[in-house]
């Protein structure tokens, strides 16, 4: 309540610009001495920033294309813009509020359709809110190695493995394509984020904060609570630590990019063969049973099977 009153007061005392003052144009990147960034044609977020563009997307995703009515079926897509809402970047930058989305959805549900897909979008927004509350409750623990659970796990800080993950050259096509997408465009799908985070924490057993920090420096939708909260979740030290969060990244690649369309888009490769399990080798990934024993052509069986992630508490 006090918070709302304070906000209202600030709003009321915010005076208009003095007359005759020319607010001028916002400086460009080059005016600020920074190199202009050319948008990457492959981006799943080919939109511009700002509230106008955010409202336009909201309108198109709901009313013009009815994409929201099939969200549940499309949300794990990898290519294009409409498999998910793409609201996160505007939300993170304050151009759109979750309440605006919520009320527009309610309107859509009453006038067009209310189904599992429209409910799912609200459910995802609740995750966002939930991570905000996790942040409020646990404060700095969001950045602690042991997480909000205070669970001691021995993590490694192997720079070589980290660089391979970061630059998308682990040899696992699905992981690499996602990492390359984020580096080139600043966006990565939710399915991709879960997989690359699981790979870093569960397969490479690297300090999860290295991954979270890399995400923080790359994502155009970076949000402290969502990012660190999700990373802790993946690392098994945040919410829901009881469940096994490990993804079989090779299987996921075959499930979610069966034709290799996504891999081809990001890798520049010319053959779809790279995503097929031929014998025991998938583009540098050597499999033994269900497990990955070599990455990027190098045998890292030691690294992947070592007991480096033993509980010390
Ligand atoms: C390791 C990891 C790091 C992440 N880092 C961020 C981050 O920095 N910023 C961020 O906004 N999201 C983050 N997410 C959550 C999610 O991946 C993105 O919000 C989503 O991919 C954005 O695309 P979208 O807007 O099309 O999402 P949609 O699938 O259309 O979902 C609608 C909205 O719901 C919210 N949402 C969906 N999934 C989640 C989730 N798991 N956690 C919290 N909110 C969610 C977002 O606000 C999103 O815009 C992260 C997830 C993981 C696994």
From TrEMBL:
InterPro entries: Cry_DASH (IPR014133), Crypto/Photolyase_FAD-like_sf (IPR036134), Cryptochr/Photolyase_FAD-bd (IPR005101), Cryptochrome/DNA_photolyase_1 (IPR002081). Pfam families: FAD_binding_7. Residues 1-20 form the signal peptide. Residues 123-262 form the Cryptochrome/DNA photolyase FAD-binding domain. Binds 1 FAD per subunit. FAD binds at residues 71, 84-88, 221-223. One of its GO terms (biological process) is photoreactive repair. The record marks 155, 208, 231 as: Electron transfer via tryptophanyl radical. GO terms for molecular function: damaged DNA binding; deoxyribodipyrimidine photo-lyase activity; FAD binding. Its cofactor is FAD; (6R)-5,10-methylene-5,6,7,8-tetrahydrofolate. Keywords: Chromophore, FAD, Flavoprotein, Signal. May have a photoreceptor function. NCBIfam families: crypto_DASH (TIGR02765). Belongs to the DNA photolyase class-1 family. This is Cryptochrome DASH. The lineage of its organism: Eukaryota, Metazoa, Spiralia, Lophotrochozoa, Annelida.
């Amino acid at each position: 309540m006090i918070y709302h009153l304070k906000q209202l007061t600030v709003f009321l005392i915010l005076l208009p610009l003095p007359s005759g003052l020319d607010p001028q144009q916002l400086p460009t990147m080059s005016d600020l001495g920074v190199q202009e960034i050319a948008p990457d044609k492959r981006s799943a977020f080919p939109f511009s920033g700002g509230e106008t563009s955010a409202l336009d997307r909201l309108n198109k995703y709901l009313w013009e294309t009815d994409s929201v009515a099939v969200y549940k079926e499309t949300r794990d897509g990898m290519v294009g813009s409409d498999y998910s809402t793409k609201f996160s970047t505007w939300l993170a930058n304050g151009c759109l509020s979750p309440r605006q989305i919520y009320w527009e959805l309610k309107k859509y549900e009453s006038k067009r359709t209310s189904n599992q897909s429209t409910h799912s979008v609200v459910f995802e927004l609740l995750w966002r809110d939930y991570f905000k509350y996790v942040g409020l409750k646990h404060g700095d623990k969001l950045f602690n190695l042991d997480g909000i659970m205070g669970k001691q796990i021995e993590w490694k800080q192997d720079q070589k493995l980290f660089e391979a993950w970061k630059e998308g050259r682990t040899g696992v096509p699905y992981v690499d394509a996602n990492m390359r997408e984020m580096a080139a465009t600043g966006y990565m799908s939710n399915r991709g984020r879960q997989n690359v985070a699981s790979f870093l924490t569960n397969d490479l057993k690297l300090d999860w904060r290295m991954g979270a920090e890399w995400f923080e420096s790359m994502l155009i939708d970076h949000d402290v609570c969502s990012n660190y909260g999700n990373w802790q979740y993946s690392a098994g030290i945040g919410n829901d630590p009881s469940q096994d969060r490990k993804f079989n990244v090779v299987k996921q690649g075959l499930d979610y990019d069966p034709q290799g369309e996504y891999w081809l888009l990001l890798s520049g490769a010319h053959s779809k063969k790279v995503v097929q399990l031929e014998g025991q080798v998938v583009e540098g990934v050597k499999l033994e049973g269900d497990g990955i024993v070599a990455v990027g052509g190098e045998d890292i069986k030691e690294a992947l099977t070592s007991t480096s992630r033993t509980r010390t508490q």
